[in-house]
Amino acid sequence: MTKFSVALSLLLLVAQATAFAPQTSEKSRIMSSIQVKLSTRAADAVDTSAPSATQTSSSNTSVAPVQQPQSGIKRERILKEPALWEYNFGLQDPGLTLPHGIEARVTAPEKYQLTEEQIQTLERDGVVHIKGVFDEDWVEYLRAATGYQVSNPHFWAFAGTASKLYDYIQRNIWQTNKAFADFYYHSAMGHVLAQAGRTDEIRVSTDLLMVNPNKGFKWHQDNQNGPITWDEGIRFWITMDETPATYGAPVYLKGSHRNTIVDEQAVFVDIEQKGLEEYKDKLLEFRTMPGDMLIWHPKTIHKVDGPSDGIWTSYRRVLGGTVAKAGSLYHDKRGTGGVLSDLGRHGLEDGNKLSSPFFPIVYPSFDESEAKARDAGTVGRDPRDIASKIGGLAGKASGEKFSSFFKVLGSQAK
What we know:
Elements (H helix, E strand, L loop, with lengths): L1 H17 L14 H5 L15 E4 L59 H10 L1 E4 L5 H16 L6 H5 L5 E4 L1 H4 L1 H9 L2 H8 L5 E10 L4 E5 L12 E7 L10 E4 L29 E4 L6 E4 L5 E4 L11 E9 L35 E3 L4 H8 L7 H9 L4 H18 L1
């Protein structure tokens, strides 16, 4: 927790000076051509015949065995933590060409049809695995965007990276990296999530670029969903890599989105607690592949186990987050851990309709004025709101509510 506190302090100190003036960052961290291109296949994923989804009646949560070095070679991280002076500020643009002949900010978003069975699976189980939503062209686009980002780390990734949660993690990546904004505007993501949520509008509430979750995340539910309620949101993962055979596969408790036991402010979940008996033995494990999507209800309890030694020798790159369905309202979450996914100065007040360039519409189509606001650098975190919103966590009551989040940070650092 110490590193997180330092990171948070630096965040507040530097934010006032940097604000969000649009600027193009210089490349600050040199990676080998292999690292920039990034492998198309996880080095540790040797069992390509393994099923992509498995249901089991066991609640065994034993840790995977320590990965042994082959031929006496020491295991080394594929991605190193950047030094403080290597971080960048402002807007970033990798200058990537969109696939399929798409013209940025002109071409309509693509579509991908779900089946009724897939939608009902999400509603019944609280999670669904949609295979092959994005083809090789889109996967390579996302890998290139991610490769650029980890080579040019943004300051907004500092706190998460310093906490050792991930090798690289950045919230609201679309606000600073144009390639991810264009992906949301033009890919089939919005259409897929609109069908999954049976809604005619999708807005991005908050997102995360996540690279290699170190020792993983134990059983938890998601409360960093932006300023919306559980039922207003849909969680998503878009995977760029093959899941290793022995770790890294997300595991969900089937139907646990219907539980009435776990507090809304909780992050970690003790699945042995009273009231979760009907869910704790119903495990759904998904070994995702490049281009797949996982979609789940924010309340669905889940975990991801990383390598037991915390060292990823291959990439596990995921673009994930929460989208808001039509009719969603803005909920001011000051005083709770949920505020960390809402640090922009958008002017919305509690109970307002969630309509703002800070929460861009991506389905049925992106909004040109919202995209221009993003490109002008007027959409992003604001030092005044950071101070006021995070400052609300200082009180005893809110501190107790927020303690579960700090426990997550502390556990991952061990």
